[in-house]
Fold these 4 entries.
Entry 1:
Amino acid sequence: MSGPLTAIGLDYSYPSRDRVLRGVGFSVRPGEAVAVIGPSGAGKSTLLRLLARLARPSAGRVTLGDVDLHDTSQSHALRGAIGYVHQQHGLPATVSVAMAVLGGRMHAWSPAKVFAAAAIGPTSAETERVGAVLRRVGLEGREFDHVGELSVGQRQRVAIARTLLQAPQLIVADEPVASVDPTTADNVLRLLAGEAERGAIVLCSVHDVDKARRHFRRVIALREGALVYDGAHDDLTAVHVTEVYDGCLA
């Protein structure tokens, strides 16, 4: 499975609300990293959840290469192909950092290997792989700490390390740096955007427009559920930003 991520006419409505997304469409090639910006309530998180197969569109479709992401018959083919980093890391507090990170590879393991890892811990080779990716997110030496011993921001970096180890074809990150300090945020966004260099497709919602410009060559903007900008980061002018955010809460 290879090829672009293509969204065609995406609509989404909650039962008790108006449409959250309105005919959103775009295509992202392998090797391309895209920032998604827009005010609160614009539909960013909903869009990313659709791309991560965590929700189904009310209308429209999403394909990765020639595979329809919401075709349930394709679930096995898509195992491990999508990495999702969300605002709440969702990691169990009682597991070790090493096992939490290795969760990014377990889709490719046999049930026996998963059981062995849970019972006796990771092998030395697996621990080395985990250590290498933890160094990339600034958590070197924390392999055998429990997740519950880490700060919220550190736990988020563990979740990002898990996605990096997974090396998926598509990375979807929803405000992944909301709980980290500014310097760490820059490092994390650089890492995520850098995954495009190995051929991944990366979409990441970013609250800070300057950081979006700094780390991503392409920016998509949503306002009131509609796509209002899709272009190069250096073509995103102050006029565009005003059109996206004017009169809205950031």
Entry 2:
Amino acid sequence: MYRLRISRIVIATCAATFGSAVAAMAQAAAPATESVFVRAQRMVTTGQDSAGRAVVDSVLRATDAGTPRYAEALFWRATFSKTAAAAERDYRQIAVEYPLSPRAQEALFRLAQLETTRGDRASARAHLTRIQREHPYGSMSARASVMLAQLSFGDGDIVAGCAAVSAARETLTAADVELRNQLDYYTPRCTNLAATGAVGDTTVTAARNTGTSTKARQEYSVQAAAYVTRDSAEVLAKRLSTRGYNVRIVGTSKPFRVRVGRYPTRDRAAEVLRELTQVNVKGMIVEAERP
């Protein structure tokens, strides 16, 4: 019964991904959006689908691959796409080539929705697990954990389901009433599992503690730019290094990302970002890759 219910929910959600409804949803839940994409989204929501897609296509043609803006444009092209296949192609490119983009976790979530719709539950769970691992406290983490719990229970994997329930509870906010209700549905199963000791004494607790320790270790950097060639990245890195910034180039192939510092909080990274804008460097805050 619950598997049928899950499938219906996921299919309905995926169907909404293409068209004006999802354009509005993406805008509401997204990071600050550049005005050109806001204009394109307005066109799509008012029925001017072709015009909206044309605006995004023009941005892609004028933007260098490997840059934060390119990833943003890919996200909006996927959101406005006429077909699931085209949307999946762009979401997958974001997930693979732009893993630290602010849009990466939502791209992974939508890939999971698409995989579930066509019955590939294993791939869907892999995408959702990646969100838990790489974005444990991101904007999509609670929804991803709830969906992972649903799929895991549907597959008969109670241990993974309860671990996902635990992870979801760590990131719920007061506004997540519906998500909390869905988790409450599974609470008796996890309580019974813990009582029987079927999976050892610390299985669910370990999942929760893993998320907590990840949060404690998380650092933030300012990504100043990303380039197709390493030579271009080194020019900017040298420029920033001479100004006293701790700079590194991330990536062994394109895009080569120029990143500044490792800061314990997003607020501290934001201070450095404001400093960099004074020397005409327009970057973005990202979760620092592990050393």
Entry 3:
Amino acid sequence: MKKPLFLIIFIFLIPFLGITQNFKSIVAFGDSFTDNGNIDGHGFNRDTNGLVWVEYLAEMLNTQKVDNRAWGGARTDQGHYLGYDWSGFHWQIDNYKEPIDKDETLVTIWIGVNDYWDAKDDPSNSVRNIKTGLESLIKKGGKHFVVFNNFDLTLSLGYGPDTEYFDLVPKVQKLTKQFNVELYDMLFNKSTGMVQSNPEIKIYYIDIYTFMNDLVNNNQFNQKPWRGTYKFPDPEEYLWYDEWHPMTSCHKKIAEMVLEKIQD
């Protein structure tokens, strides 16, 4: 007795349902939200109390290798917010000499806030820098990209009412929204976007802006930095490791969000 054709097709497709892209390596570019410390000659300090999101993601994907090129304080150009002419996004890319295996490597990019956190720079320049960096990475073989927008950094304790940066809150919020709108348009504009111009690439867009807004609005966290508290109390009560950076528990949630996006 012959099986119906639709049943044969369904049986054939079963092995492919729910399969996640099998990435054997991750190459990460970014700033202190991705920097995992001075490992293999890269990075400054780990600005959290444990793993950063890309390390959690590698565990979740069972990835064999993570090459983390991120540096704390990195800007989208060549430099650092403190004035160094190195460590920036373009510098990170220029110093990444290895060819990228387009089918087995996931490239992650989370960068931008160090350009305008003090309300001094134009986010339009940041988006142009990210576009140039993406073009370079595509030439190196990049095909699968995780790209973050930026969350509202004024949610952090660094812009609190008693800080020297409190008066910058409205400006930084406006610049963040501008950055996110222009970044999305640069990536997905139906006429001029990177995806339109490079149909061979896949971009997993991570809306960290909405994620962090929801996390803060839906939870009550201790409004002090965990690292700055006496005797390091229960970390589960805290969102912020220091005045600017989230706890490793938040990094894990971010990794879970990225994994879900990759699996869509």
Entry 4:
Amino acid sequence: MGDLTGNAESTKSTARGGRRFEASKVKSFLASDFFTADYEVVAGDASELAYLGGVHLGAVDVLRHEAVGVHRGHRRLQHYRQDHIDDFLISVPVRGRTTVMQAKSSIAIEAGTFIISATAKPITFTSESANSHSTFQTYHVKVSGSMLRVRVPQIDLYCHHPIKIDNGAGEIMTAMFALAIKQGAELTLTQARNFGGMVIDAIANATRDAPELVSFHPDSRQTAYARIRDEAGHFIACNLSNPALDPALVAKHCGISVRHLHAAYAATAQTLGSVIKETRLKGCRMALQSAELRERTVFEIAMRWGFSDPAYFSRAYKAMFGVSPRADRDRA
């Protein structure tokens, strides 16, 4: 993703025949790097576009929009029919005001607040500066719908509700947007994808615990179970090399009974034991296929991921991947 930058003086001087900045250029820029939408300058000098640009981070696109006056973007039904994007858009005004209109409801937000919108529905964004001498600045972050739903299953219920950035998670999220714009172009493709995943995690963290959204939780018990799984998953990821890792140890860390822990996983397609085993096996496979670890024996790698019985490890590995650990390594 590139950028369109300038200010009133420089833009006018570079435009042939004194031509003002054309909103159609912004429309073309959005269509190529973000999504299809109409764009118009409602009030102010159209040439005073201070900055419009962003960066692509795998499943995440971060856009910064800065200008003087009132600028408006329309994503209409025909645009969705054209590109079929079913993602989420996180809008964070830094200066000025951003108004989001969707489903005949209009929400105005200012600095210290963000809002989530669904791109699969018609939507209108209006950004306006406080006065004719200042610019508005807004971050719009497009996130893969499926990847955000995995992290926040209730995310569709949270759309079009202002969320305050008054906690550490919200501040970190906003700081990551700014850092992505500043340094994102310096990342390799793999680094960009990894950082994009971190951005999605930051959005999820700022959203899940927002007090404004508590009333939208469809099932308080399922929400509590989701939190338990999240805490258990983090503990498991940090202790996979411990052969003693089992449901009792995880339950002790979470401060709940083993029965309660199993109940939290009963609503999913996996048991806690299978989560631990499959995560370990995936880690082993990644290590076995790594050229940097060719000097390590198969069982040394298995032990590093918490397997103490080589026969059991081989059976479990073949059952999951359809090939023995040694054959998988040789094939890689």
